[in-house]
Amino acid sequence: MSYNDDTIKKRNRYTPEFKTKVVLEVLREEQTVNEIAGKYELSHC
């Protein structure tokens, strides 16, 4: 089986600063997790 660039997804790597920013937004409870995930184009899983 051969793969081309379209079938292989690269794993996103996030900086500790970005992760902290997102977690702090979640903890503020001003938006839902789904809203924040959509804002940053993240999967909420």
TrEMBL record:
SUPFAM superfamilies: TrpR-like. One of its GO terms (biological process) is DNA transposition. InterPro entries: Transposase_8 (IPR002514), Trp_repressor/repl_initiator (IPR010921), WH-like_DNA-bd_sf (IPR036388). GO terms for molecular function: sequence-specific DNA binding; transposase activity. It holds the Pfam family HTH_Tnp_1. It comes from the Bacteria. This is Transposase.
